[in-house]
What we know:
The chain is an alpha+beta fold.
Amino acid sequence: MVELAFNEDRIVEKAQNRFFNWLSQNNISIDQRDDFDQYTAIRHRHGDRHLNQAFDPRQVKFGSDDFWLLAANHRREAIATYCLRRLLVDDFFDLIRSLALWFAKPLKDLDRRFLVQCQMPSFGGEVVHGGGLWVRDDHRGFLRLAVVMPHLARALALHHRGFDHDCAMIRNNPGDGAQLAERRAIFMGRKVYGFARVHRFVDGWFPPEGRNAIMHLCHSTRAESLVSLSAVEPAGKRLRLGGELGNRPLVNQHDEPVHTTAILSQRQQQPGI
């Protein structure tokens, strides 16, 4: 078990208070839940047929520390979701290569087209893995729920118990080339979701999607996660964070199959987290 030091506890407590105050000011409530069947039902009701299998109870088994966040407006309507799992592993890349992150039942034969290559060093221990971010169309943009949800989940996970590493994945939009996918993933992973580093780990066949994809892995150590919680400061209906592209809102942040959001123009859709 990873214990937090007193100063780390204080950082987590202050971050949670900031996020909850900001949500309250915007008439948004948050529930922490473990009924992933309800998570998938909400997503399906809003038109998402295929979900990230890492957070789909039909594909994986959840532990007692896994949870998801439901954001609701003043009418108690679902407006955003985010999921987080806690995994005890020797090497997180083993979960990727074996596809065990997405499928609880071992696959008989791994597709030889599936190649995992990443500049990021391997990591293990207590690892939290986030994804399943969805924000309803009419709450995208200036409310910045795409920023709040991952950061709040990170804070709640640390409040419960420390971890060694925090990670998530970003997949490219179909049709995006390698350079555009790289720019989007780095901006979203570091500046919006608050991870310390972002590296490509798949550029080709990706079995969970059943197609060619460009996948990026986002990663932070616990110390770096605490820094990210200290850096995000809600202010009114906007959210201050370093490195924003001017004041442009996030656009089309639809979590499609594998993980998080996009920027720049109405034509450009976001990568999934």
